[in-house]
Amino acid sequence: xxxxxxxxxxxxxxxxxxxxxxxxxxxxxxDYFPWYxxxxxxxxxxxxxxxxxxxxxxxxxxTISFNKSAKQFSLHIMDSQPGDSATYFxxxxxxxxxxxxxxxxxxxxxxx
Amino acid sequence: xxDIYQTPRYLVIGTGKKITLExxxxxxxxKMYWYQQDPGMELHLIxxxxxxxSTEKGDLSSESTVSRIRTEHFxxxxxxxxxxxxxxxxxxTSHGELFxxxxxxxxxx
Lengths: 112, 109
Fold this sequence. Notes:
The structure holds two protein chains of two kinds. Chain A is mostly beta strands. Chain A has one domain (4-95): Immunoglobulins (Immunoglobulin-like). Chain A contains no helices and eleven strands. In chain A, strands 2, 4, 5, 9, 10 and 11 form a six-stranded mixed sheet that branches. In chain A, a hairpin with a 4-residue loop joins strand 7 (62-67) and strand 8. By secondary structure, chain B is mainly β. Chain B has one domain (4-108): Immunoglobulins (Immunoglobulin-like, Sandwich), CATH 2.60.40.10. Chain B has strands at 4-7, 10-13, 19-25, 31-37, 44-51, 54-57, 65-66, 76-78, 87-94, 98-100, 104-108. In chain B, the strands form two sheets. In chain B, strands 2, 4, 5, 6, 9, 10 and 11 form a seven-stranded mixed sheet that branches. A four-stranded antiparallel sheet of chain B has the order 1-3-8-7, with no helix packed on it. Chain B is globular, with a radius of gyration of 13 Å.
């Protein structure tokens, strides 16, 4: 049973556009929601993470929006650049054990 | 920055062979994990360890086994590889966040 559902599977934007990736979860015990960025041939790397006590978090051009009542969270990439082209995974876990449940990933292509 | 080393990076073997995927880390982190990743699919936790002599199975059933005799090493073994084991295997450690290695891509013919 997939605990975190991610959409879309892929998206293409022009440079400067704002790709938005959405995730939904069922387990209300989840309290840690990270996003990972993965380039081909590399392992995933933590991009940004949020806990449910805040509704939004920004780090550089990356923003997480979190809606606890809807059990949804999303990633926005502001002023996207070709170097942002990668696969992005949302994930969730409870506590600090980092046994993460991952979404299926979104391949983002930013065209110059 | 985490230093996690996985070897081999790529492995192509025949059915029935025994293989061991190595994972080592230099940070002294107690918690280590193995995730399995197939193209277009979510990562699945298959094994984890909270310290020496501690190993547990993850959410996805796997025929692989792991050991944790030393803090730095967390090898994964398949006694008899099959084509269904073809996948990418990612090792990770955690300390405030989860750090991944670059993965071992296994192909079983």
